[in-house]
Amino acid sequence: MREFVIMTDSDTEIPYTFAEAHNVPVFLMPYTLDGKESLFDLGKTTDYAGFYASLRAGASASTSTRSTYEIQCFFENILKEGKDILYICFSSQLSSHYELAEMARKAALENYPEARIEIVDSLGIAMGAGLLVYHAVKQKEVGRSLDEIWQWLLDNRMRSLHFFSVDSLNYLKKTGRVSAVTATLGTMLDLKPILTVTREGKIVAFDKVKGRKKVVKYLADTVEKNYVDDDICKELMVVCHADNKEQAEALKAAIEERLDFKEIWLVDVGPVIGSHCGPGTMAFLMMGKEREI
Hints:
The protein is an alpha/beta fold and 293 residues long. The chain is built from twelve helices and 13 strands.
């Protein structure tokens, strides 16, 4: 049986410390701030506070994809070592990257026909997809095969839950997630939308909370509603924020008071995701009950 490598892209936002410690190659995704393009390196050199300060000051941010050839080279760096690949990709419904990765897969296998590349559409983003990477790596380290892990990912990706609030609706308006009228009224009424990722891997408005102070309780309640008393759920959950550490710490503390997780990571939202959700965003990601919508 050939050796295989678990790989991912930086939009799954698995911390670089984890990726390096567990030998997970990561394809770095681009973002542009005021005309300057950078690659998100999972925080190794990322100035999170500076990025969000720039957004608050009115800087323009956008995201894009990288070429099929670049992804092909990323794959072939592993294939040339005689190893197969299990690649966990962020949602196909939120970017063309998944489609480009499939094209790169075909091109790479033409050069290495004896090899195998399996691409899993996480149908998730940020650490919602990163949780799948985390569990896949842990399973590989206890000796599970590529086929076993691939099947586990397909069977469990609907348990990867994403619930998040945003501080301003304007960034969602720019990306077409809410209408201009909704954004204006939401700002006037101090409504904080709660968003989620659907079974199809799309972002939708799920609910709304009036006032910033109520967001922590709402999200903590939602964690509790979706908690499952099993090892997958209890192993790790993640709270992330876009330059909103104080509120994120309050959410983490509220979760710790109520529920038994072995670990709760507190992480920054990277600039690729942050370009769309904006500063002040706060989220939790967990392996809980299956997505309802």
